[in-house]
Amino acid sequence: MAANTDRSSAAGESFVLTRTFDAPRDLMFKVWTDPDHLARWFGPKGTNIVKADMDLRPGGSYHYGLGMPDGSVMWGLWNFVEIKSPEKIVLIQHFSDERRGVTRHPMAPTWPLKTLSSTTFTEVNGKTLLTLHWSPHEATELERKTFIDGMSGMEQGWGGTMEQLVAYLAKIQG
Amino acid sequence: MARLSTTTDVFNAIAEPQRRDILALLAKGERSVNEVADSLRMLQPRASKHLRVLREVGLVSVRDAGQQRLYSIDAQGLKPIHDWVSHFERFWTESFDRLDAYLAELQGKPSPARSTPPVKEKKHGRKH
User: Is the ipTM of this complex over 0.90?
Assistant: First the structure.
């Protein structure tokens, strides 16, 4: 991944992503929780939020549709568990559909239906250290295995070439 | 949907530790079923069964070489996993790059240099 993204993988079934942003924490928290702000950055290049419904409170949710370059829409649903401004947001993340249903991503049907995601914002000298922590939530054995394999793969650079993927497989233990 | 079942089956296949051991071994080069069984201290029928599952999901291919059949990793079979992980990784990297630029715009600062590496860049070291 990018040079200024530090990654670490916690032992067990979680994956942690960290990155420092050149902005104070209050602003970071705002762009992460205000739907109008989210629409300006959330999603890969070439995508745009086509629909969003934000109810920011514990027990509330954010339902969004991400328009993809090929014209399809990828839906997501966040159920908020804890919101502590400006330092922390805990939510349960799901792939979704237009009707706020919970679905599987077609590329990874055994990926956990629910992922617990914890985002923390730590201010350091006017910049913000963002920490994203993911773990399977109420998951089956197979979902947990898929998650661990996938996240380990990312840790080892599966996002890279096929040769790197094969080399990684040569290293992993059962 | 053909693609859906392929991805499920591939993930199911690699969820089994002994099959991962077989893939790790085959990553070093092609092997016969007896070589697989011996290296991994498995009974031949078990090795044979695992290899069949791996072939069915397209992770392993086989070729006839005179008296024996040699198994090797089929890179095409790994593609669904590879694609999913790339997708996930790209999602966050690109979102964060957009966030960098957006934050700069909001604060009236110059846009930071893009951090998405060019396609051919070799993997950088990972810190823990």
Answer: no
- Interchain contact, B27 vs A1, CB within 8 Å: no
Chain B residues whose beta carbon lies within 8 Å of the beta carbon of residue A45: 94, 97-98
Give A38→chain B minimum CA distance, Å.
Answer: 9
Q: Are A139 and A112 in contact (CB under 8 A)?
A: yes
CA angle A62, A145, B48 (to 5 degrees): 145
Q: Which two tokens stand for residue A52?
A: 């969003």
CB contact under 8 A, B98 and A40: yes
User: Nearest residue of A to residue B25 by CA position?
Assistant: A170
Do A63 and A100 touch, CB atoms closer than 8 A? yes
Beta-carbon separation of B100 and A22 below 8 A: yes
Q: Name the residue in chain A with its Cα closest to that of B122.
A: A160
- SS3 labels along A42-111: CCCCCCEEEEEEECCCCCCEEEEEEECCCCCEEEEEEEEEEEECCCEEEEEEEEECCCCCEECCCCCCCC
Q: How many CB atoms lie within 10 A of CB A116?
A: 18
Q: Global pTM?
A: 0.69
Would you say A169 and B23 are in contact if contact means Cβ atoms under 8 Å apart? yes
Coil/strand/helix, residue A38: helix
A14 phi, psi to nearest 5 deg: -140, 160
pLDDT digits (tens, 9 = 90+) for B64-115: 999 999 999 886 666 666 677 777 778 888 999 999 999 999 999 887 766 5
Q: Compute the residue count for chain A.
A: 174
Cβ A55 vs Cβ A78: under 8 Å: no
For residue A168, give the chain B residue with the closest CA.
B24
Residues present in chain B in total: 128
Q: For residue A133, what are the β-bridge partners?
A: A16, A118
Contacts of B99 in chain A (CB under 8 A): 21, 31, 41-42
Q: Which segments of chain A does DSSP mark as H helices, in order?
A: 25-33, 35-38, 141-155, 162-171
